[in-house]
Specification:
By secondary structure, this protein is α+β, with helices and mostly antiparallel strands. Helices cover 62% and strands 11% of the residues. It has 2 domains: 406 residues, no CATH class; 129 residues, no CATH class.
């Protein structure tokens, strides 16, 4: 490396980060869609409620909150999912309002900070060249790129916690800065609060440290025991909300075991790493159960990760574990350990679970490629070509996925048409949106100011089981939202639509189509006072 680069490493790193952020922002600004997903709105609505506490609906059902200064402050989105992401959304919503762009802009901002911390970690461990290549691999990773904008699990906040935590711990270790050590430990504790499976990431990293750096750990315990004990205490403080919620966390495990088998989790892991997950999800309209049936373009990161792990194993066997004490050994163990943990974890059937591997995979692959370049000869040429291929295939998959989104505006559950319906109904005095399927309620609750939103389909099944019938009083102000096949999730939509069509002129049925002309969902308005009945035989309307 030239003298100039050595003297200006930080400036080069910062400029590279700014360039990567500029590229991501330009692509994000031109990405046309998709619409807001239910789970994305789940986190956003908790943040909005702090800003606008008088809005109808308050917190989404099942969330936990406390009251601060007369406002409902989110604590948990689910027993195993803290509301850190919702809390970080509060400033963006306060400044820019309940806009989808504000939510996705804030999400991208968190990812950019996590990227900067990751580049700094890579530079400290491996040097500038690995840091720059790692940044390029992260920026061109399709799964990371899209989840950094419209996540439906708090991936970006978890990435920020582990990257900043690692950076501060490294600084505290190498520069003897106790404040950095304690702050880094607290950041990792917040990662646990963000999502309980963060613990598995920490355990995988500790295993790698124990295998490759046991002497250093023992020396650290002898010489800086008080600092380590303090760091553990601060870590527990950051994780305290989740620790206090542990009973509820374990209480949900039985429900999660019914969601996805090992085969499905393997497919999700592979499609997350090869970059095809976002394309599959967009092509399927959000129907997770058919993702493996979708043909999709792929990048080479999954293959590169497997090669890097095997190369580390071969090197450890041939030259001994000491040869991997440059950091690659810990990363290899972390990648294998986290992947194994996610495959074993009940319910880990979404990409945001497998993205716990970020940025360990990219760091390991980047370090191995730079090592190959330094070897010279044929290895240099192969490593350079592999680096270019990884970046180019990832960028190609990103652009192919963006093209699909532009063409469709989002299919099915990802349709952008829900925003138009919300805007239209929000301007109609007294309008009531009645969601008869999953995928409407929270998007409408978040994006509107005056619309009354109801989500009764959760109660229909229990009412049928206990009373044999469920009923709802409505009039021309009530607008029912349903999906037809193949997007109907709870089985109410097709039967409801069939019944509404029998009403003739008394019912206005509108199909809201994506940009390809395919129906994403339907709205139904009955133009006179009525009672909607649901019993075991189906739907019926009664009129006054």
């Amino acid at each position: 490396m030239s003298q100039w680069l050595r003297e200006h490493e930080f400036a080069v790193l910062l400029l590279t980060w700014l360039a990567l952020c500029g590229g991501a922002l330009s692509l994000a600004a031109t990405a046309d869609g998709p619409g807001m997903l239910y789970d994305e709105a789940w986190l956003a609505q908790q943040g909005r409620q702090v800003v606008d506490p008088l809005r109808e609906g308050l917190m989404p059902p099942g969330t936990q909150k406390t009251w601060l200064f007369g406002r409902p402050f989110p604590l948990f989105a689910l027993p195993y999912l803290g509301s850190l992401k919702s809390q970080l959304l509060v400033p963006a919503i306060a400044m820019f309002g309940n806009e989808l762009a504000a939510v996705r802009g804030a999400t991208l901002g968190v990812a950019m900070l996590a990227l900067l911390a990751t580049l700094a970690v890579a530079r400290r461990i491996f040097g500038l060249r690995v840091a720059l290549l790692t940044g390029a691999l992260l920026a061109s990773d399709p799964t990371v790129f899209f989840h950094a904008q419209w996540e439906w699990g708090p991936f970006t906040t978890g990435w920020l916690c582990r990257a900043t935590g690692a950076l501060l711990l490294l600084r505290g270790y190498s520069e003897m800065q106790r404040a950095a050590t304690l702050t880094g430990a607290f950041a990792l504790g917040l990662g646990v609060y963000n999502r309980a499976d963060f613990v598995l990431i920490g355990l995988a990293c500790l295993l790698g440290l124990a295998i490759f750096h046991a002497p250093a750990l023992r020396a650290l315990w002898r010489t800086r025991r008080g600092e380590l004990i303090g760091a553990c205490a601060v870590f527990l403080l950051g994780a305290l909300p989740m620790l206090l919620n542990a009973r509820r966390v374990f209480g949900t495990m039985g429900d999660l075991t019914t969601r996805g088998d090992l085969t499905e989790r393997i497919q999700v892991l592979i499609s997350t790493l090869d970059g095809s997950y976002a394309y599959r999800l967009m092509a399927a309209g959000g129907r997770y159960e058919i993702l493996d049936q979708i043909s999709a373009p792929t990048a080479l990161l999954a293959l590169a990760c497997a090669v890097a792990v095997v190369a580390c194993l071969v090197e450890a066997v041939r030259r001994g574990p000491a040869s991997l004490r440059d950091g690659r050994g810990v990363l290899a163990v972390a990648c294998v350990g986290i992947a194994a943990a996610m495959l074993a974890l009940p319910g880990a059937t979404r990409a945001h679970h497998m993205l716990n591997l970020t940025p360990f995979v990219q760091l390991l692959v980047g370090a191995q490629l730079v090592r190959g370049i330094d070897a010279g000869g044929t290895r240099r040429a192969v490593a350079a070509l592999a680096s270019a291929a990884l970046i180019l295939t990832g960028a190609t998959v990103i652009e192919t996925t963006r093209s699909l989104i532009r063409e469709t505006g989002g299919r099915g559950w990802w349709s952008d048409q829900i925003a138009g319906v919300g805007e239209e109904l929000d301007q109609e005095p007294g309008a009531v949106a009645v969601s008869l399927d999953w995928g409407f309620h929270l998007q409408l609750l978040f994006s509107t100011d005056n619309l009354i939103v109801l989500e009764p389909f959760w109660q229909i099944g229990s009412a049928l089981a206990s009373q044999g019938v469920w009923s709802h009083r409505g009039d021309e102000r009530h607008v029912y939202l349903v999906h037809d096949e193949p997007y109907d999730r709870f089985g109410f939509g097709p039967r409801f639509l069939a019944t509404a069509r029998q009403l003739g002129d008394r019912a206005l049925i509108r199909a809201h189509q994506d940009r390809e002309g395919e129906p994403a969902f339907f709205t139904v308005r009955v133009n006179q006072p009525h009672t909607l009945f649901v019993d075991r035989s189906g739907y019926s309307f009664g009129f006054d």
